[in-house]
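Why do we care about 3D structure at all? Because function follows from shape, and shape follows, mostly, from sequence. That is the central idea of this module. The next example makes it concrete: a single protein chain, its amino acid sequence, and then its structure expressed as tokens.
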Amino acid sequence: MKTENRLFRSTGLVSLGTLSSRLLGLVREMMMAWVFGVGLVGSAFVVAFTIPNLFRRLFGEGALSAAFIPSYIRIKKDQGPEAGWQLTRNVLSLLIIVLGSITLAGMALCTVALQWEGLPEKLSAVLVSLRILLPYMIWICLAAIAMGVLNAHRKYMVPAFAPCILNLLWIVALAGMQFVPGLYEETKIIWICWAILLAGLLQFWVQLPSLRKLGYQPGKKVEPFDPEVKAVLRLMGPAALGAAIVQINVVIDRVLALWVADYGPLALSYSERLIYLPLGLFATALGTILLPEFSHLVQAKDRVKLGKMLEQSMRGLMFVMIPAAAGLAFLAIPIVRLVYERGMFDAESTLLTSRALVCYAPGLIVFSAAKIFVPLFYAHGDTRTPVKIGALTVLANLLLNLLFITLLPTGWKHAGLALGTVLSGLLQVCILAFLARKKFAEVHWTAILISWLRQALCCVPMISAAWALLNATNHWSQWISVPLAITAAAGIYGLCAWLLRCPELKELRKQ
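And the structure:
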């Protein structure tokens, strides 16, 4: 029980940092909607920003981190702390070499392409932003590795709050441009790109003091091709392939959205931000904790605690995600209107974004479950299985996206991309859950499914109460009626959970 209590206490700390970042991110997206609406310039920026995020997922918090953290914990335990720090220095130096080379080549290609007079307008808008944003991937990947090391030492506060820097600087840039009259949209986007680049640098540097307190010394000799680094890369290989496949698919989704309509990428981005708020508050925070915690239990060969941690995580996670998904789906239009509808973001933008949100909402359940099962495989050193499953689900996602784009009417095609992502993610989670139970830990799925059924039943009166309150207060200001309806819905859900004796309510209250 001590391990479980520590798990949720640590999750609570990471949740607080993640919540701060997500709330700032929501403010940032509100300001982006106000300044750019759902126009081409903003959509092209969203596509461009996806590229450095691809490498962040691949070399930072994704494949490399998944291979590095278990290896770092093992080496520190077997060979001592200094061996662990040497591995850290070597991996960071290798990242600088590889990502620096990719960045220089990418910036050169963007510069050459922008000289072509016949370059399509949409592609030109993407490349202008991309040329500035490419160096961001170096710093954010270094920051992700630093975050992984601190998490391995169970130091969660600084890594949890470091991502706030990005949103803070982004907000400052958006606010600052309001004091400079006559700026074109293209110039405003350039401001945003430079703010992002500075934020990536700061996210790495703010973590260095914490690393040094633990014993990290950056000035020592590095060996980027040390045998231990090669071992990490061998583990990373399959995971990198899987992450690359998934993230390339994200890029394809964004390109397809831009091809479907100028508003496509931004409408998806605004709806995703509303999904990321509850997802980051608990699921992302829990996933951050689970990789090192699973790794420690795997090293201790404690399958019983591993199974209990997995089961408790699944029940506790869905206690939050099931009502959140239901609320976002059924209250999509009033929520989008409250959050975004002002400035350049009009009623038509609200309709387009809410359609994407309805399709994304069930993904809260799917995406959060994946954040539990994938770290379980990585903690066992099994980076190949998620790759194989990822390749299958990416293919399914692409086929579903093309199908929905073909079948759905104009105005819904971009929402079809969101639905395809959710359905393919569901396939991935189902396969991972089946294999995890078979290979790693015995999980009592009957108890989990009963728990989920209770939670779903609690959502019925919750949504009914929210709709009734919205209808009764439709003549009030939306700044009062919508938060009031959401607050009442949360209260009704908690009351129903107490009446149905949901054990997760008691477990979470104890943390």
